[in-house]
Amino acid sequence: LCLGTTRNNFEGKKVIHLEYEAYTSMAETEIKKICRDVRQKWPSVKHIAVHHRLGLVPITEASVIISVSSPYRAESLEAVMYCINTLKASVPIWKKEIYEDKYSWKENKECFWANSEK
Hints:
Blueprint: E1 2-5, E2 9-10, E3 13-22, H1 24-41, E4 47-52, E5 55-58, E6 62-69, H2 73-90, E7 93-99, E8 103-106, H3 112-116
Antiparallel strand pairs: 1-6, 2-3, 3-5, 3-7, 4-6, 7-8
């Protein structure tokens, strides 16, 4: 199980809340692809749940949850790690951090489109 919660600071700045936006249909397609990949890589996996919130997410609340069940914990844990890393790298979800006096759009360092433009 991976439960990603919002942090209250970034580089010394107080974060008030986060806002997430997505290209929803593409995000859903990419998440389904991640789930199919998990089933191919770890055939013993029984159940997979992946959900990423959109819109306003207050501090300390969950932004993303990933759950994987299998008869073997190592495979479940590997699959969860694969899911979160692949989600951050390929799913079109954007994060806006709201601070006390300004805001900033953040990109995942892992996402392939951020690295290809540099």
